[in-house]
Amino acid sequence: MRDGTIVVAGASLAGLRGAEALRRGGFSGRLILVGDEPHLPYDRPPLSKHVLTGEVAAGATTLPGVGALDAEWRLGTPAAGLDRAGRSLLLADGTRLPFDRLLIATGARARPWPQADEARLAGVHTLRGRDDAAVLAAGLGARPGRVLILGAGFIGGEVASSIRALGLPVTVVDPEPAPLARALGSVLGGFMAGRMEASGVDLRPGTRVARLEGDEAGRVRRAHLAEGGTIEADLVVVALGAVRNTGWLAGSGLSADEGGLSCDGACRVLDEAGWPDDAIFAAGDVARFPHPLYGGRPVALEHWGNAVAQGAHAARAMLDGPDAAGAYAELPAFWSSQFGLNIKSLGLLEGADAMVIVQGDPGTGRFLAVYGHEGRTIAAVAVNAGRWLPAYEAPIREGAPFPPITGGADQPAPAPFPPGLPSMQAA
């Protein structure tokens, strides 16, 4: 199909790259991009870093290529429903957009603080979008006496790093035993803890916040800990992960929940009975798909590179059909910059039962760790050592014996040990 009407629900990275791939693939029909924000697609990684430190304005993050795309834009009006039988996307303003094909790329939103009245206190922030970053940057510019971050995952760590770069005091609270413990394991988490504390972060692992308290003016002033005690704070950043934007699909008959919208390997969405809809596709953070490198286990990835690659893959399937596109099998990859560290990863770490340092030494802050599961290599993480990472792409794809590369003159003797990751059942 190379004519007719294609609607893209979601005007962010996956939606934009999918739309661009449609045009490159020869689609000559009507192309409409719908976005809940009023902004053209923008880059999210700088929001927790350069935007917060004032190096880049929030409005200067628009993605390249936007102006060259031959498309109609419906911005500032979110998708509100889906009429599958009538092949129409329903918008919040009452508009119906008929389509021949639909690409769902509505992404995810920040998980809010669970107590709504406390979440509304002035000075309580989440960080997901451009406007969030602009408001948070302004709050940091007012030089609060202490910032409290709830969550020590990637966003929490990046925000803490930016706050310390501004010279502001910051406390990070997380119920896990170490920062990034659920993502990288408690072993590398322990390394990150040392780095954060050396940078002046007041780190409180194994700590839960029970409630937030505000003053008479409705501004946050302190957090009450579940174990007793309080932490004074003039500004709070809630960094508790993300929720996929699937609520608007309620009643559509599609298989969707807070964990994502289910689709097959060709990015076709699945209905509640598990059957694909040949007219509707999904890509990016919202898409939950069977990954062939991990036994067909359904995964949903919040990675920049995945949004780009899966948007393009969905476009190929929409134009040429699912058989021609084949199964989406991009190797998961992500990166994070915080506290002077450049962290890069290949593969999925979930379920890893062993890890080994194969290059460098954590004591120097430059090393590469490889993760295994039942004797097979499944992932690798580089810290300030990205040049070593490409050598492990093929072993991860092939499920090579763990560890895959040993005996090099510049390698430490391999000594596998448990990575400290949660079990698959607990993840």
TrEMBL record:
Annotated FAD/NAD(P)-binding domain residues: 6-311
Positions of the Reductase C-terminal domain: 334-402
InterPro entries according to UniProt: FAD-oxidoreductase/Apoptosis, FAD/NAD-bd_sf, FAD/NAD-binding_dom, FAD/NAD-linked_Rdtase_dimer_sf, Reductase_C
Top-level taxon in the UniProt lineage: Bacteria
Matching Gene3D superfamilies: 3.30.390.30, FAD/NAD(P)-binding domain
Region (Disordered): 403-427
Any one of the GO CC terms: cytoplasm
Claim: Oxidoreductase is one of the keywords in the record: yes
Cofactors required: FAD
SUPFAM superfamilies: FAD/NAD(P)-binding domain, FAD/NAD-linked reductases, dimerisation (C-terminal) domain
UniProt KW keywords: FAD, Flavoprotein, Oxidoreductase
GO function terms (MF aspect): oxidoreductase activity, acting on NAD(P)H
Name the record gives this protein: Ferredoxin reductase
Native organism: Methylobacterium aquaticum
Gene this protein is translated from: hcaD
